[in-house]
Amino acid sequence: MTDGGIVRRISEIGISASLPELKPLPVFVGPSVGDEFNTVRSFLIPSACFRREDNSFDFDSSFAFDFDAGPLKELMALHPGSKLSIFGHSDPSGRDDFNKILAGRRAQSIFGLLTRDVAVWEDLYRNHDTQGRDKWGVRTVQIMLNQLKFLTGRADGTLDDPTRNQLKTFEVARRLPPAGFDGKQEISKATFKQLVTEFMDMVCTDDDARPFAVTRDDFLARGAGRDGKGDIQGCGEFNPVLVFAKAERNRLDQGTDHSERNSRNRPNRRVMILLFKAGSRIDPAKWPCPTVKEGVAGCKARFFSDGEKRRDNTATEREFAKTKDTFACRFYQRMLEASPCEAIVVTAQFGTWEVVPVIGVPASDGGLPPGVDVPPDPDAVAADAPAAPSLRQED
Amino acid sequence: MIEHIVRPGEYLSKIAKEHGFTDYLTIWNHPANAGLKARRHNPNVLLEGDTVRIPVRQTKEEARATENRHRFVANRKPLMLRLALEDAFLKPLVNTACELTIKGQTIKLVSDGKGKIEHEIPPDAQEASLVIKDPQASFNGLVIPILIGHLDPIDTPSGQKARLNNLGYFAGPLDQEDEALFRSAVEEFQCEHLGKADVDGIVGPKTQVKLKAVYGC
After folding, report:
1. Is the model's pLDDT at A379 over the cut of 60?
2. pLDDT tens for each residue of A86-127
3. C-alpha pair distances (Å), A268 with each of A16, A93, A296, A319, B108
4. Least CB–CB distance from B145: residue in A27, A283, A331
5. What's the pLDDT band for A345 if we cut at 50, 70, 90?
6. Could you give the C-alpha distances from A69 to A14, A63, A110, A119, A377, in angstroms and in order?
7. Angle ∠(A236,A241,A246) on CA atoms, nearest 5
8. Cα(A395)–Cα(A92) distance, integer angstroms
9. Residue A357 contacts by C-beta under 8 Å, 6 or more apart in sequence?
10. Measured between alpha carbons, how far is B59 from A9 in angstroms, rounded to an integer?
11. Average pLDDT score over residue span B15-42
């Protein structure tokens, strides 16, 4: 496993890369005269990676309102037959267990979006994160209606008349039973299905703004595991790519305004999609990661023996790409050891983009992608403008 | 008595053949090699630099009548190449077709119900290659180079590293030092095969016993 690979695209919201192909190591065996044998087991190594920072989500929410799948489509074309697995990460503030569940729900959300699986989203919509604050609620319906040009005005989660009226208009336009909102302020199954189906095609698109979707068969466990085991993981705050110096952490934690901390923590809030070699397949029962709905025990069982120390703040700031010692989860690190996708390529610091040099950018590709995306300005969302939920860099 | 210093890739059956012995046990069970036997346990997993004492060959005489045909059968255990094939996070590759190439010959084999294949090899075989022929297996079609007799004993870092690599706990190429990678591979193994309290990244006696048992030799 050597560092390197080819960075395909890089922008301030993410990075995609192909990893160096591993030739099988020679197998050193002892011949047998008795009953000895030699075990030869293959190992699972990603062939490509796609990391996206958190601007698909709102603060404390798992609702994916946008997913530019262009880089993923490109990687899947470059590595035909590859199998995917999604790893959600949150930043190191807040409780371990809350963050694990939130990160898992975000991975689940991206999985549902990519596979156009309404049932996966329905699970997130109906079953709130009872420990954390992730509740899809009315706001989610407003965002989707706005996206489909049924303009509810603000998407603030308040069930007001414009929202009720626009939902009714949508239901009539789509010849659905006009169920409206029920006593729990939720919409009917049929309406949810129609709304989500149309919304997903609008927000999960390729470079030409055409809908982009994959199937469960494109995933490592083929969607066969319980709660997506093997296909989606919530890593919580266990694997930060950036760990502040202790003094810095203390300074950032002070007071009630944590916007600077949240801004600095941005690279840590990310979704990583790994592509495994064509034909890779796993038995979900043997997969080390717990399901997205399980607690942190399964994660901690796979920690380095000094895992807690690794993710803890020390005298100096540490970046995974430089020190390789910030991930607590050994299983995750061993897959990502050689990956350029865990380098902090861009960090947002008070409005300026600081670009850190990256290894392995091919000159022929020109390095930076065409059209570096500019994140939408939250203030630019007018009261009656459609869609574009505000982006808050917090977790 | 000759002293034979083991070179990389040498194993006792091969050394025995070189010195004209049909049965490696003649050497292995010789009192002069008692120390080696106690230290290495497995005659075909020796370490470079080990000393094998080669006794003087004894000629065995068998009296038979002339003008007749007689069959003489050398009494020795066959030397086997025995592999257990597994897919990462999946299961043993049972009843799986594969091709073993050794000394220019390609042999078609099918693994048994436990994913094992075996094939008798000449006692001077050094290299082979294996190709799994199963579209369901993640290493389908991949040519896996096999170096016979290169496995070092379990109490050496190189022997531990090779077993970890073969078991899919990538610990780095044998000719490259990567302490952090090796330690993490050891911890992965300990995590999956020993208790939580045993995860320390150090290949102590308990880990050695387990690694040898899981690996198979």
Report:
1. no
2. 999 999 988 999 999 999 999 999 999 999 999 999 999 999
3. 16, 10, 18, 10, 50
4. A27
5. low
6. 11, 16, 10, 21, 21
7. 90
8. 9
9. none
10. 74
11. 95
Alpha carbon of B3: minimum distance to chain A alpha carbons (Å): 22
Query: b/e for A15-49, b at 16 or more Cβ within 10 A?
Result: bbbbbbeeeebbbbbbbbbeebbbbbbbbbbbbbb
- Asked if residues A130 and A138 have their Cβ atoms less than 8 Å apart, the reply is no
Within 10 A of B15 (CB to CB), how many other CB atoms are there? 23
What does the radius of gyration of chain B's CA atoms come to, in whole angstroms?
A: 20
The complex scores an ipTM of: 0.93
Q: Does A285 touch chain B (CB under 8 A)?
A: no
Chain B residues closer than 8 Å to A33 by CB: 13, 24, 43-44, 77-80
A280 touches chain B (CB under 8 A): yes
Q: What is the pTM of this model?
A: 0.87
Asked if residue B192 lies in contact with residue B209, where contact means CB atoms within 8 angstroms, the answer is no
Q: Tell me the C-alpha distance between B184 and B200, whole Å.
A: 9
Lowest mean pLDDT segment, chosen from A207-211, A285-289, A368-372: A368-372
Question: From the list A37, A44, A324, which residue is nearest B83 (CB)?
Answer: A37
Distance between B160 CA and the closest CA of chain A, angstroms: 11
Q: What are the residues facing A348 on neighbouring strands?
A: A353
Which of A28, A280, A306, A320 has the highest number of chain B CBs within 10 A, making it the mutation to test binding with B?
Answer: A28
Neighbours of B33 (CB within 10 A): 20
**pLDDT the model gives residue A363:** 32
Going by pLDDT thresholds of 50, 70 and 90, the confidence category of residue A4 is low
What residues of chain A lie within 8 A of the CB of B216, using their CB?
A: 36-39
Neighbours of A345 (CB within 10 A): 23
pLDDT of residue A242: 95
Q: How much is the CA Rg of chain A, to the nearest whole Å?
A: 22
Q: Are B39 and B68 in contact (CB under 8 A)?
A: no
Among left, alpha and beta (phi > 0; psi -120 to 50; other), residue B216 is: left
Mean pLDDT of B138-164: 94
Where are the extended beta strands (E) located within chain A? 6-11, 14-18, 27-29, 38-41, 46-53, 67-68, 83-89, 204-205, 232-234, 242-243, 270-276, 318-319, 346-349, 352-355
pLDDT in tens, A165-191: 999 999 999 999 999 999 999 999 999
Residue B127: how many other CB atoms lie within 10 Å: 15
SS (H, E, C) chain B: CEEEECCCCCCHHHHHHHCCCCCCHHHHCCHHHHHHHHHHCCCCCCCCCCEEEECCCCCCCCCCCCCCCCCCCCCCCCCEEEEEEECCCCCECCCCEEEEEECCEEEEEECCCCCEEEEECCCCCCEEEEEECCCCCCCECCEEEEEECCCCCCCCHHHHHHHHHHCCCCCCCCCCCCHHHHHHHHHHHHHHHCCHHHCCCCCCHHHHHHHHHHHCC
